[in-house]
Amino acid sequence: MYPVWFPHVSSDPSNKSEIRRDPPATSWNYEPIATDGFAKWIGQKLTDFETVYGDPEEVYSSGFSFVIHQYFIDDQTYLEVNTEGNRITSIKFLGKENTDIAPFQFGMTMNELAKITMIYPNFTLNHDGKIIAFELMEDDMNYRPLIAFDNGTFAMLFFSQKKGESSLYSVMYLDKETLLQLEPYQLTDGVSSRFTMEEDADWEIINQNKQEQSKNLFQFLRNYDRLPEFILDTKNQMLGEQILGSFFSKTEDFLTTERTQQLKRIQSGTEDGRFTLSRSEMEDVLKEFSATTASVYLELPVYDPTFTILTWYSTPYLHTRFMHQDPESLGIAFSKENVVVLLQKLENKTEDSDAN
Asked: How far apart are CA 16 and CA 2, in angstroms?
């Protein structure tokens, strides 16, 4: 399923959904580097972390067994911590303070990273007595390499394309369990575990929290790229929610039988990977709502919005789509593990307002 992540490679993900690539012709497995920076906090108590970084600004449930804590340091820094119980399972950091991400530095290039450590394409992990292996594809190697530390934790390094040559803009530290549950890379052996959905969770509140969190992060990244912020309006938000609800209430109207079955396999966990709409499927969805001038992006499963948006931002095709120079109206709708992002050109929104 992994090529579905990259529509610029294949405009019709249904054509390549069953392809499995063999690992590169090498027996090298990864070698860890010395633990440093935020990697030291993975697995530690949240209460100890907060003696250093203070109390979070926002805390809410993800609905999938972990809790999300957001910290405010300054308007140029984004810090988010996930926990299970009182134990830290992942840390996501965007900013300018390099001490916390040593031995890495924000703005460093891949060539500079290569002076610190080799970038490994293959990872083989022993998890609960089972072997799980995955492979980093070309885009992963260039924009989302994975680094292992000698305390058993990992870091995903996110590189942007805003200046021609990619540069490091964010780091996500995580434990082995979270890495396997998020499944950011192509599995080549074994079966990944999935996050457990909390059936008694208040999904209305959780969905609202994730929508706000995602909008704030998108605005942060727009500012990072020195672009005008998205316009947030109720009409576009409501349209995004309607599209999400309509798609899942009558999926067969938008997808072929083969694609519908693929969607069901991914939803049930019998097939790995993520589901996104092809270009023609997106057009059919927008026609249903007479929103042909808009752009819609649907993906599932999405457990951790910040991780997903950082991945979009470091994917060349999606970075280009979400980081247009011109101002646009943004709507984001969540329904448990499903998300829709709706973008509308600002001039079209203005014309609609004038017409009303």
From this structure: 9
Tell me the pLDDT tens digit for each residue of 119-137.
Answer: 999 999 998 889 999 999 9
Nearest to 68 by CA among 273, 307, 313: 307
Q: Is 179 helix (H, G, I), strand (E, B) or coil?
A: helix
| Whole-structure pTM value | 0.88
Q: Are 37 and 102 in contact (CB under 8 A)?
A: yes
> Cα–Cα distances in Å, from 63 out to 1, 199, 309, 334?
25, 8, 18, 12
Residue with tokens 């119980």: 85
Cα dist. 127→149, 155, 179, 301 in Å? 16, 18, 11, 22
Instruction: Give phi and psi for 234, each to the nearest 5.
Output: -65, -40
Is 112:118 a contact under the CB 8 Å cutoff? Answer: no
Which has the closest alpha carbon to 325: 217, 228, 251?
228
Cα 265 to its chain centre, rounded Å, is 21
Per residue in 212-230, pLDDT (tens digit) is 999 999 999 999 889 999 9
Spatial distance between the Cα atoms of 209 and 191, rounded to a whole number of angstroms: 31
DSSP 8-state code for residue 82: E
**Residue 43 exposure: Cα atoms within 13 Å on the Cβ side:** 11
By the 10 Å C-beta count (0-12 exposed, 13-18 middle, 19+ buried), 242 is classed as middle
CB 344 within 8 A of CB 328: yes
Determine the Cα–Cα distance for residues 148 and 136; give it in Å rounded to an integer: 14
Buried b (16+ CB within 10 A) or exposed e, 194-212: bbeebeeeebeebbebbbe
C-alpha dist (Å) from residue 90 to 45, 55, 93, 98, 177: 12, 17, 10, 18, 10
SS3 287: helix
